[in-house]
Amino acid sequence: MTPAIQWYPGHIAKAEKALQEQLKRVDVVLEVRDARVPLATEHPQIHQWIAGKAHILVINRVDMVSKTARTQWETWLRAQGQVPYFTNAQQGKGVAGIAKAAQAAGQEMNQRRRDRGMRPRAVRAVVIGFPNVGKSALINRLVKKKVAESARKPGVTRQLRWIRITDDLELLDAPGILPALLTDQEAALKLAICDDIGQAAYDNQRIASSLIELFKALDGQTEEASYLAALDQRYGLSAHDITGETYLQQLASLRYQGDRERTARTLLRDYRIGHLGQLPLEWPTEEE
Fold first, then answer.
1. For 135-169, what is each residue's pLDDT tens digit?
2. How far, in Å, CA of 83 to CA of 270, rounded?
3. In the beta sheet, which residues pair with residue 164?
């Protein structure tokens, strides 16, 4: 039996405890998800944590998915009663709208304070999301300078800290938060493919084979989403009638002297940096 993907390092467990303490002081929650996997990067406890607080949903890495995918997700999320803000935090696209939304939510909070005879204060916002979904890059763009360590790997931010953005807005930078137990292993596979979980949690060859299987399952979701054509174009090898594992083996023989590990790493890296195109791993469906 294949071992389950699990990753819950000590710093995440500690951070989650500290975050729950700090949440009492927070007015606005900025929840950041990965545009390639907007459902897999939704924390199962997020709604419990943010009950009664203003919630701003940020779908980051929008540059990694097609316009069609973005439009479909926007329509679907709005039908669920959510207003998504799409961003590319690395380049700062869409970030201004988030700062405005946070300040607008804060003004409402301060109006309620005034109504109760209390003095207005700076709005306290927190940025929450899975590891490596782009929280630190988003914070740096909001503050307009590098205040949070940002790297394309999970687990860079390890402690909670408050950052003042303006006189009216304070931001809590929190490490990536994961469920203690990843019960949805299909979602865990997608997190591994997108590098939204620590590498210690998974085997590259298994995840690369799963990427091929997922591409086969998603092929033709829309006219423009030709997942199998992307593999064919990139590697000159068709995945049509073979399993993900066989594809990995054949590609290793064809390109990398039979080195399956190197092949797996290359496949995953190519997907993660966009060499296979703007292909999300999730599309909204009517059942969801």
1. 888 988 888 777 665 444 444 445 678 888 888 88
2. 31
3. 170
How far out from the chain centre does Cα 44 lie? Answer: 14
The sheet with strand 28-34 has its strands ordered as 84-86, 54-60, 28-34, 123-129, 169-173, 161-166
In contact, 52 and 200? CB cutoff 8 Å:
no
pLDDT for 41-58, tens place per residue?
A: 998 888 888 888 889 999
Instruction: Write down the residue that tokens 């929840």 correspond to.
Output: 31
Identify the residue whose tokens are 């360590």: 149
Query: Which helix (H) or strand (E) segment is 60 a member of?
Result: strand 54-60
**What's at 24, amino acid-wise?**
K
Please answer whether residues 214 and 187 qualify as being in contact, where contact means their C-beta atoms are separated by less than 8 angstroms: no
Residues 261-270 as b or e (16 or more Cβ within 10 Å = b): eebbbbbbeb
Residue 55: phi and psi, rounded to 5, are: -125, 125
Copy the structure tokens of residue 69: 């995918």
Q: Give the global pTM.
A: 0.88
User: What pLDDT score was predicted for residue 196?
Assistant: 84
d(CA 117, CA 206): 60
Report the distance separating Cα 168 and Cα 117, nearest Å: 19
51: helix, strand or coil: coil
Residue 106 pLDDT: 84
- Asked if residues 94 and 62 have their Cβ atoms less than 8 Å apart, the reply is yes
Residues of the chain where predicted confidence (pLDDT) is lower than 70 = 1-2, 6-12, 147-159, 180-181, 224-225, 286-288
Residue owning tokens 């500690």: 14
pLDDT of residue 159: 67
Cα(224)–Cα(143) distance, rounded to whole angstroms?
37
pLDDT of residue 243: 95
Other CB atoms closer than 10 Å to residue 220's CB: what's the count?
12
Q: Minimal CA–CA distance to 128: which of 19, 201, 37?
A: 19
